[in-house]
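Usage

Read records sequentially. Each one opens with the input sequence:
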Amino acid sequence: MERIAAIERNTKETQISLSLNLEGGEVSAETGIGFFDHMLTALAFYAKFGLKLKAKGDLHVDAHHTVEDVGIVLGQALRQALGDKQGIRRFASAFIPMDEALCHVALDFSNRAFLYFQAETPQERIGDYDACLTEEFMRALAMNSQTTLHIRALYGSNAHHMTEAMFKALGVCLGEASRITGQGVTSTKGVL
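and closes with the structure output:
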C-alpha cells in the first residue's frame, strides 16, 4: 500500500506544490522563509517522512499567508496519505527538549479536528519568522488533517529553541502515530 500524496494549491496569495511519502524519502522545503524551511525539514526528518515542498507567497506583505497555507496543504496531504487509516497506531505523544526549552506534543489521528496550543515565546521574531505564526501553522495542519493536536511549551527562554522543540516533537508524533502496527482501524467503534 503506497502512503503518498501530492497536492497543489494556487491562490492569489500563495502557490504551493507538495509531495509527501509516509514511508520516507528525500526532504526539501523551499518557502522563502529560512527559519520555517528549517522547521519543516526537522518535522519531516523526525517523522521519517519524505517531503518535497515548494511555496511562493506574498512575502512582501508578510509570512502569514505562506505559513498558514503550507499548514493547509501539509494537512491535506497527511489526510490523503493516511487514507482509511487501517492499521495505524493512531496516537502518539512526545516530550522534546532543546537546551533550556521543553515542549510536549500529543496527537490523535481521530478524524476530529482540534488544536490546543499553549506556547508563548519570549521573543516575537526568529530571523524573518514571526513566532506567532507557529500557532497558525499548527491550526491549519490540525484542521486540514482532521487531527486532534495538543502542543505545550512547558518552559524556555529562547523562542528559536522552543519553536524547534515543538516542530521536532510534532515530527516524532506524526511518525509514531502514522506507523502501521496492526490491522483494522484503531477504534472501539470500528471506524474513525
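Summary fields computed downstream for this record:
- The chain has a mean pLDDT of 96.
- The helical segments are 34-47, 64-82, 133-145, 159-178.
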